[in-house]
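#struct-help
A.M.: can someone run this one for me? Single chain, 257 residues.
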Amino acid sequence: MHTALIADDEVTLVNFLKAELAELWPELKIIAVAYNGADALRLINELSPSIAFLDIRMPGMSGLELASQLQAAKATPLVVFVTAYNQYAVDAFEREAVDYLLKPPTRERLGRCVEKLKRQLAADGAAPAADVLARLMSAMTAMHQAPAASRLDWIRAAHGNDTRLISIDEVVYFEANDKYVSVFTDTGESLIRMPLRELLDGLDSSRFWQVHRGTIVAIKHIAGTTRDFRGRTLLKLKERPEELLVSRAYLHLFKQM
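D.P.: on it. Structure tokens below:
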């Protein structure tokens, strides 16, 4: 029996993959789910799954960073990257020996992925998973580094009836709400019409952390953490009075606080 691990911080996507894989590949056993890269690495080393579905962007350790460490694992799984990259990047995936799922994946696309994985696992004389992953990582690292020049420096946001140009250095945190994302600085709140996931792709991960499904905070504006009466972890900010909830998937970022 083949086994699989799913690593993604989006609960909806995890549930979709689990439900669809149960129908498309009943013989495949999902033995673990991880919501951040560190937990995924630990579980892969402990359980040695045949397949790992890895989100490109995860808190703490990205799918790419995780995959690079898997090359030294005692039993390297076949890796399927889950990605929000554009078509250019997808074309590069097509030329590699492992598969990808473009968010949000469809049942039909997942079905093709399943068939590809079955062929890979059943093929006599197929390249070892470690070799397949090494070739992919070479291409993926180049792709992952390429967008660095397009990091956001300024954000155009609505503030009442006015439009403001906000420097990324002024941002304390972003918070998703309905169709908009609120941008909070130490002087107020503005609105931008951009999905939080797309916004995250344009931010420097060494300066901004996602701390909740709908919240991204500038690291330099974090004063510390506290616990509420329900045992939840809250972030205290330097310039603003509100406290931000940290979801369990991102608690590892604050273990030293």
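A.M.: thanks! The helical segments are 11-24, 37-47, 63-70, 87-94, 107-122, 129-145, 196-201.
D.P.: also worth noting: The radius of gyration is 20 Å.
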